[in-house]
Amino acid sequence: MANDQPMITYGKGKQMPLSLYKKRHSLAHIMAQAVLEFFPDAKPTIGPPVENGFYYDFYVSRPFTPEDLQRIEARMREIINKHVDFVRREVSEAEARALFKDNPFKLELIDGLVQGKSDEFGEKTQANGAPVITVYTQDTFTDLCRGPHVENTREINPDAFKLTQSSGAYWRGDERNPMLQRIYGVAFDTPEELQQYLHMQEEARKRDHRKLGAELEIFFFDEEVGPGLPLWMPNGGVIIEQLEALAKRVEEEAGYLRVRTPHVTKEALFLRSGHLPYYADSMFPPMTLDDGERYYLKPMNCPFHHKIYAAKPRSYRDLPLRLAEYGTCYRYEQSGELFGLMRVRSMQMNDAHIYCTEEQFEEEFLGVVNLYLRYFKIFGIEKYVMRLSLHSDEGLGKKYVDNKELWLKTEDMVRNAMRHAGVPFYEAENEAAFYGPKIDVQIFSAIGREFTLATNQVDFAVPARFNLTYTDRDGKEKTPLCIHRAPLGTHERFIGFLIEHFAGAFPVWLAPVQAVLIPIADRHIAYCQNVAAELRQHGMRVRVDDGADRMQNKIRKAQTMKIPYMLIVGDKEQQSGAVAVRLRTGEDLKAMPVAQFLENALRLIREYSLALW
Ligand SMILES: [Zn+2]
Ligand SMILES: [Zn+2]
Questions:
Q1: Residues 233-282: pLDDT tens digits?
Q2: How far apart are CA 347 and CA 353, in angstroms?
Q3: What is the residue-wise DSSP string for 285-309?
Q4: CA of 92 to the centre of ligand 2 (A)
Q5: How far, in Å, is the centroid of ligand 1 from the Cα of 147?
Q6: Which of 597, 583, 593 is nearest to 511 (CA)?
Q7: 148 Cα–ligand 1 center, Å
């Protein structure tokens, strides 16, 4: 990503170009000014820049209407065109309290600032010493703020932002607090980028995985089954099987061994792994069996794989040991957090654990990174970002295993491996896993939307909790390192991504139905069935549409279902052992011998090609 310009880290380890951050943040202030002009009683609370734009929360007598947003937006343009300065000023605590004496929300934020507990967005900080309180003023509006801002509104293109929506939000996200009204805006450097973003949003609506998932009969949810528990229909079942076949093939080539582990297990295992009690909120509540033992649904596969490692004595000759499983896990996501396939309560994970020595670490880690890249190529994922997530010294012993030396060493090992892989990455402090540094992977769909894929984690702590050892060359017992990885994430999230990425038009190898045979008249049905049988013998997924519909309707139906090939059969084709091939794009390849169609289709499937012909 934009490595040529200075970046700023905001929120929870996210990054944005500094210049854009200043513009978005300044727009939030300008919006607050405009809102106060129309709603003098409104109380501005917090207004941070966010990904793609900004928002501001107001305590106000009534919700904002679309007409309000239009007026506010127009007024913002006027303020921007006045070319006013943003002026920073340090103030004493007393002065700050006097300035915001009519705004209890700002006074609460000042309390947090003075106590060094939180910043002006109410986000937790670890600031030390007496805080410097600053305010920024533009035109008629002054806000409690640490900046940074643009120097003058002339830096902001008045046509490169737009207010998108307004909705209710509780003060500090707590439903016991007063309800505020939040206005969202999107903002970019140029009007072109804004238009591109708005177009992408429109495209994303059309490609919504929940909408397409239903239309293409891939998955659904059922009230009697429960929220967050997807049911995969036959088309979804095919996609899952194809992904697993791909993973199995790729992983076998890379020396992985496949294992299987149960879905429920005794409490003791998760106590040992450290998931309990800390992770209990994210797990389904336990069930007590008649032996008095408490059992849990597994939230992850790691402890089971550790047990398989420990099932027999290991020597350095056994390492690296790579155990893989498409393991089904259960997590108790809050019902408000559930979202289509993106946030679910049952998930099938492309999981594996690699146990290796320190000397083997870099090569193994590289191998995993290369696996990610190989998959990206297969799925046509052209844009991705990798982030090396590090510990923080303050978090040692709390958020992170208390062993600074080991942290620095493993972080260095990962950093070196990444550099040697030649993959661009950036680093973020205080974002690691409890037991080691990790690589977080973001991928972007064909329309540029960002998805969080799985992480690639190094674990230097848990193997010891499970007493995992190997006998080294020198006869000494040592503890292996463990790499947790899941390049394809979970089926749920990854298929959700793929639906958007391909707009439901999956590549031939992945398409639930690859070809549909369409007889022009009933006398062609038997021939179609023979051709279908032949294609199936070669492993193709084929259907014959022998329904009563007219041919044009059958073609339209197949196109709606995004079936790659429509093979149309009339007298001419039947007599010459041919099919007339139409692609789902509408392109007509005309008649060709069945053998010719088959040969090309099989080649595309074999090569995991993204091409349709
Ligand atoms: Zn501010
Ligand atoms: Zn794991």
A1: 999 999 999 999 999 999 999 999 999 999 999 999 999 988 888 888 89
A2: 18
A3: PPEE-TTS-EEEE-S-SHHHHHHHH
A4: 50
A5: 6
A6: 583
A7: 8
Q: What's the gap in Å between 309 CA and the centre of ligand 2?
A: 13
How many Å lie between the centroid of ligand 1 and the Cα of residue 105?
A: 14
pLDDT digits (tens, 9 = 90+) for 511-556: 999 999 999 999 999 999 999 999 999 999 999 999 999 999 999 9
Distance, CA 116 to ligand 1 centroid (Å)? Answer: 18
- DSSP for 384-401 reads EEEEEE---GGGBTTTB-
Identify the top-confidence range among 1-5, 109-113, 185-189, 333-337: 185-189
CB 256 within 8 A of CB 602: no
Q: Looking at the predicted structure, is the pLDDT value of residue 453 above 90?
A: no
∠ Cα 173 175 181 (to 5°): 65
Q: Could you read off the pLDDT of 563-592 as tens digits, one per residue? A: 999 999 999 999 999 999 999 999 999 999
Phi, psi of 190 (to 5 degrees): -130, 155
CA of 24 to the centre of ligand 1 (A): 10
Distance 263 CA to ligand 2 centre (A): 15
State how far the Cα of 497 lies from the Cα of 193, in Å rounded to an integer. 23
CA of 138 to the centre of ligand 2 (A): 51
Give the CA count within 13 Å in the CB-facing half-sphere of 148: 12
- Please tell me the number of the ligand nearest to residue 148's CA: 1
Question: Domains in the chain, please, with CATH?
Answer: 7-189 (3.30.980.10), 240-260+298-502 (3.30.930.10), 264-297 (no CATH), 515-606 (3.40.50.800)
**What's the 354 CA to ligand 2 centre distance in angstroms?**
9
Average pLDDT, rounded, for the chain: 94
| 568, β-bridge pairs | 518, 580
d(CA 118, CA 458): 31
How would residue 69 be classed by pLDDT, with cut points 50, 70 and 90?
very high
Q: Which ligand is nearest to the CA of 30?
A: 1
Q: Which ligand has the nearest atom to the CA of 354?
A: 2
Amino acid in position 173: G
State the ligand closest to the CA atom of 137: 1
Q: Which ligand is nearest to the CA of 483?
A: 2
Helix (H, G, I), strand (E, B) or coil at 54: strand
pTM (2 d.p.): 0.81
For residue 212, report the distance from its CA to the centre of ligand 2, in Å.
31
Ligand nearest to the CA of 54: 1
Cα separation, 463 vs 482, in Å, equals 7
Q: How far is the CA of 26 from the centre of ligand 1 (A)?
A: 7
**Residue 3 reports pLDDT greater than 60:** no
Grade residue 342 by pLDDT with cuts at 50, 70 and 90. very high
For residues 352 and 454, give the distance between their C-alpha atoms in angstroms, rounded to a whole number. Answer: 12
Tell me which ligand sits closest to the C-alpha of residue 32.
Answer: 1
Q: Which amino acid, residue 147?
A: G
Q: Are 216 and 238 in contact, with CB atoms under 8 Å apart?
A: no
